[in-house]
Each structure stands twice: as C-alpha cells, then as structure tokens.
Amino acid sequence: MSTIEKSLAKRAAQQGEQPVLADSTLRQEGFKPKSRTPHVDNQSGSDIHCFPWDDLRPLGILTPNTKRSQLAEEYRQIKRPLLMNIDKKGADIVDNANLILVTSALPREGKTFSAINLAMSIAMERDRTVLLVDGDVAKPTAAKRLGIKHEAGLLDLVDGSSTKMSDVLVRTELPNLRILPAGRPHDRATELLASEQMAQFMSEFSTRYPDRVVIFDSPPLLLASETAVLSSCVGQIVMVVAAEQTSRHTANEALALLDREMIIGLLLNKYRPSLGNRSGSGYGYGYGYGYGYGHEQSPEPDSAPIAQQYPTA
C-alpha cells in the first residue's frame, strides 16, 4: 500500500469510514467483495461498479465465490479452447483471436447469459484481463443485467459523442474485468455497428492490451445484418443454440451468414439431462453445454432439435 493510500486509510479509520483502496491494492490483496455501492478509484477518479451478487446468483451468473459448481466447471471447459487459440496453441491460428463474438440465430437462446458467464470465467484467470462489450444495441441487456446504469457506451464512442475510451468504460470491483455498455439510443445504431469506424475500434480493442480478451455480446444473426459484418472483425465466434428450441435448419441458416473459414464454436444452452442421467441432477439452473468446435461440424438441415446433434460432453 502506498504512502497516500496509508494516509487515506488512517484518515478513514479516524472518521469511522471504510478505507478506499486503489486498483493495484485490490490486485495485491485479493478480491473480497464487501460493499455494494460504488466507490472512487484513487488512481483514476472514476467510479468502480460493484456487482449485485445476491441478485445475480439466482440467475445462474458465475460469481468470484463460485468455485467447484457444475456451471463453473463447464465454463472452464468452454473457455479453454478459446484461450488456447488466443495463445496460438490451438488447431488453427487466426488473427484477432482475442476478439470473441457471442451470438445466436434468434433471441432468447441465452447468448447474453453465455457472454456474461464466459467473461466472468475468463476474468478468474490470473493472467487475463477481460472487456465485456454490450453490443446488442437494439436490445441491450448485458450491462443492465449486471446492475450497470451507465448511459454512455459503445454507440457514443462510434458516433463521436465520446472521444475517449475512458469516458465510456466501466471499471468493476473485479480488477481485471471492464464493461462497455451499449450506449445511448441512436437512430442509426445498426449502421454504426456496421461502419468502418466500428471496425477500427474492434482492431483497437484487439491490440490495446496484449493480455486482454474481448467478449462481444452481439445481436442475433437472423435479426440483425450488422452481426455478420461484425463477425468479419473478430477471430472467434461462439454461436449459442437453445436445446429443443432451435431447429437445425435455423442453425444452418445462421451459420450460412458467417465466414466458414473462421473458428466457430456451437454452444448448446438450456440442455436438460434426461431423468436417467444422474450426472446432471445437481444442475440447479437448467443449463448445459455442448461445444462443437470447427466449421466442419455444422448440423444437417432438417427440423430436428439441435440437441440431438450435439449432446453434452
């Protein structure tokens, strides 16, 4: 702890207040969430967002105290090949592998749930920093679900309303996790996401910090044309597929909008094990996963549920 921080802590103790620690101190002493109200970071002067963990746990969102649960274990397995590709240790080597687009064919398949949990899981890594971008600007959910009420965000950055990244980036109590909200509503939001300016920002996201992983919660593929455009700027794509909800024909239609030379993973969500499968009986949130890795594993076009093609591992 620096001399300034010691002085602040001493003054706070004399006044009966909780001392405020800088981000570097949080890294050194470990994360121990206590306060649920934002506090001021001494280094930057910006608010640090404290997550409403008690509200997030019932929703199935991973928390720093979630260690050996089935949900945590499954996201550990899901993130591992993504991280290997970032480190150029995977089967394929691609540019911008640290930019990961999370999408789905249609709404309500669980892409935001998956994007948040993937970001939380990677943020638990000791040598990674994570930026979660709320890119579903027509129906922004990620930042709101995490309790963030920050108005400015991605759209303000792209249209020039905010010229600095620091103006729109939300620091959180997890020292290596940042959130970029969708931003203020804009009449030309879809055009902004598909613009050259957005492509430049995506490139900046990729190269600004060598240890940063950017998780982009994007609009559904079949409802927003800009998602296919954004996919050309990233290195990896995770397409969330709802078990017993999304047909193979729908999944194929969405996959056809993507560059098949890219690394594409299919994440099976909302999978419910059969009554005879006791291995899944402790899964409280009704979510499961099946991770099909590589473009050659696309399902055959018919109306059967995708869950039959990709069972859980």
From TrEMBL:
Residues 110-246 form the AAA domain. Residues 1-47 are annotated as: Disordered. It comes from the Bacteria. Its EC number is 2.7.10.2. One of its GO terms (cellular component) is plasma membrane. InterPro entries: AAA_dom, Bact_polysacc_biosynth/exp, P-loop_NTPase, Wzc-like_C. Keywords: ATP-binding, Kinase, Nucleotide-binding, Transferase, Tyrosine-protein kinase. GO terms for molecular function: protein tyrosine kinase activity. It catalyses: L-tyrosyl-[protein] + ATP = O-phospho-L-tyrosyl-[protein] + ADP + H(+). Belongs to the CpsD/CapB family. PANTHER family: FERRIC ENTEROBACTIN TRANSPORT PROTEIN FEPE, TYROSINE-PROTEIN KINASE. This is non-specific protein-tyrosine kinase. It comes from Lamprobacter modestohalophilus.
